[in-house]
Structures are given as structure tokens and as C-alpha cells.
# Entry
Amino acid sequence: MFLFCCACLLASSCANNPANIPQIAVGEEVVIEGKGFSFDKPSYNIFHQYRVSPGDKLDVLFEIRTWTVEEEYQVALDDVLHIKFVSVPDLNEEQQVRPDGYISLPYIGSYYVAGKTINQIEKELTDEYSKTLVNPELYITVPQYLTQLRELKKDLHTAPRGLSRLVTVRPDGFVTFPMVGDVFVANKTMSEVQEYVDPQYNKISNSLHVTIFLEQHAGSMVYLLGVVEDPGAYKITKPISILEALALAGGTKEDAELDSILVLRKMNKKIVGTRVDVASSLALDQGGYQFYLAPDDIVYVPRTQLSSKALIMEQFRKLILFRGWGVSLDTDDLDF
# Structure
């Protein structure tokens, strides 16, 4: 299909400009340079820095290293603390850490323990009880700890996916990770997501690690408008050339102006536009090149040649209204 569409485009180009018929001997090879916007240096084979977008599915692979020693265990929610007083056994308490991170103790009331080490808690409680008791001696044990981790481990071993969980990026760009909660991941690379999320699990326990994979991507889109056979939005999985994009849209119509195709790309808070001469690429002219698109690019194939920047500006304004981009466009934003 792609070769057919390219042949149709080539025939159209030659009909409009017979001088562009390529003169190539059998077996001769002609190298066509690849280009994109001046501010981009993409890989033209894959998304070398794929950025997470709403609708993507992430696979969270858990690894619980039971052989790892906790250097300084920090009390977590749902842990059970046993506080034992050597000289005043009537004050002994066994408390489960509440969801707000507190426990309740005689003479003190609510006391925050979540995230603190056992040594830290013992010291603080000794200081507090010194205001009421003479030379208080106490020590703390944790008969039940990492309740959430044990439950997760049990759940993972009985779940159909084993030690992994699928999570979906919501429309607001957040993902809810088990035990960690909501994390904003939209427009981040997979490496950036990994580098942020794994330490969050390490805070729960040194033995808990995760590896995150992109299980399924929602897909990126390019938009083909103008005098093409089937205008609309097309899903892509890598940067593609304008010729490949035109093939997706069924090729161009006979009255397409192939040497004045317009491309819009969003850059920060600006829209940058350029005009691409596809006819030269098809004719294999010296100096011709293949222009590569990126996700969310808009391609407009005009019916008649756009000879002035004013006409191009008008076309861009129409495209911006169509796409719904809430940014301004002026002459300085155009890249020619």
C-alpha cells in the first residue's frame, strides 16, 4: 500500500513538473537526507525517549529481597509496637500504629511514630516519661511489622500475574501505585518514572524494589488535512516521514501542491511551522530530503501553491482552530 501511494505521489509530482522526472540508472543508489524541525534531533527508527501519556498501561514488577537486612527499621502504618516499662509494668502497652501514624500512651496521649526508628522512639518516650516518672526505663519491640508488605507479598503470590501489577495512566496524568499512592507520570520517560518510584518503595522497606515496564502504550497521533484521500488522525508508534504519513491517508489527490506542504509542531508554548517540498524528495533531486514527523504534528496538503507567508499564516490559523491548540501564532513562530 505504501509503495502504491508513493508511486501515485510520484506520478502526480511528475505531471505537475515534468523536469522533476528522476534520471537514475538501473542499480544506481540515491541517498536522501532525513530532516525534521531544527530544534529536534530525533531517532528516525524508534521513540528513543518515549514519554508516558494518558491511557498507557505500566507493568509494575515487584521484587521482595527477603535476604536484605534493614539497616534501621522505620515504623510503618499498621505495625504493632510493644512498649514495656521495666519498673512500672502496669504501663506496658501494645499498640497498632493508626492510619494517621499515631499511637496512644498513658500520660502522654497521642504520639506520632510513623517513619521513626525504634531507637528514636525509645529516646523520645524516655524523655517524655521523665517528666512523670523517676528514671524511667523502657524498651520497644515490634512483634508485627511491615503488615502492608506481607499482605502485598501474599497477594502477589496468589494473583494471576504473579509478582507484577498493571496500572493505567489516568486522563489527569497520574498513576496509582500499590502502597505508594498517586504519582504524576505524564510526559516523563520510563527511566524518570523508574528513578522516582523505586525509592518510594525502598522507603517502605529496603527489601522492596520495583521495575517498571511499558506494557501497552495508548499511541501517538499525527493529523493529515487538506487534499488527501482520507484526512483525519492517525496513530503512530514511531516518528515517520511525510511520505509514510501520506500513505496512511491514502495518498494525495491530483490537485495537491506537493512542494508546499505545511507542517505544524507544538514547542513549549509556541507553534512552529515549516513548509516542506515533498516533490523534490519524490523526484530524488539533489538536495532533496525526507522530512520526519513527530507525535501530534499536523500536516496540511494545500490545493494551490502558497506563495506568500501571509497565505501560510492564514492556513496555520485555520489548522490551530481545528486542533484546539490554545496558543498564539505570529510570523516569528514560523520556521522557514
Summary: The mean pLDDT is 75. The chain is about 25% helix and 25% strand.
